[in-house]
Amino acid sequence: MAKKRRISAKVARNLEGSLFIAPWLFGFMIFLAFPLGFSLYMSFHKVKILPSGLQYEFNGVKYYREILFNSSAFYDELIPYFQEVIIMVPIILIFSLLIAILLNQNLRGRFLFRAIFFLPVIFTTGYLLTEFVNQGEGSLGFLDRFAIGEYLDAFLGDSSWGKPVKTLLNRFVLVLWYSGVQILIFLAGRQTIPNSAYESARIDGASPWEVFWKITLPAMAPFIFLNLIYTVVDMFTFPFNPVIKLIGTGNYGYSSALAWIYFLIIIVFLLIVMLLYMRVNKSQKLAKG
Questions:
Q1: Which of 46, 34, 28, 31 is CA-nearest to residue 256?
Q2: Nearest to residue 183, comparing CAs of 240, 247, 119?
Q3: Domains of the chain with bracketed CATH
Q4: In angstroms, rounded to a whole number, what is the distance separating the alpha carbons of residues 87 and 89?
């Protein structure tokens, strides 16, 4: 009897857990799994829109071959934006970390400042950002005032990094607006570090610079990695991403193939980031040991 009761209790707990995750599973299957599978199916077909509905004509990997080997449109949009992402991600992480450390101080009105830094995440949708850029907002005014753009042209010359750097500077303020979530994550990470560690460092005579490199930065490493993954994904879905606009064509099969290629590129980039983080983390542990 006791065994049957234990089995019944175990089954009951499993059922309770299943009921709790059932809404998520239902939403995942309807709103994510099915569209992903359907887009993968369309990427191997030529889709025609007829009065009676959609007609599918199988054409194999034709669209994939055309995008990767027979067209330069995808690479013309991807490579410059990829260069922008490489520049934007470190800027956002460094800015977020510094602001989080500042907001963690015992300052008057720090809760108000935290809300101010997070408000753009709530209000700045893709449409609003586009309107800001169309109105000439989001750039650094002193670039035109001091003709810094001309110096950049002379310094970068015909380098492939010239256009991404100038594009980034023209949207610099908007890029920093995308730091709200990262600031909150860094702020939560900073509050996990006990004050006793800083008090011990001050007693030993450590300078603020040494405290940052020896205590704060190592303790924030997991949160840096989390923000790195989040920022990379966020930047690859940035409203001004030209690849996203390229995907939005009328050819459903071609667009689906392009979306899957872009998705796989993002996955590969994230895997490279994870491997680099694991390598750096492992070398730091070996150095400490």
A1: 46
A2: 119
A3: 73-247 (1.10.3720.10)
A4: 6
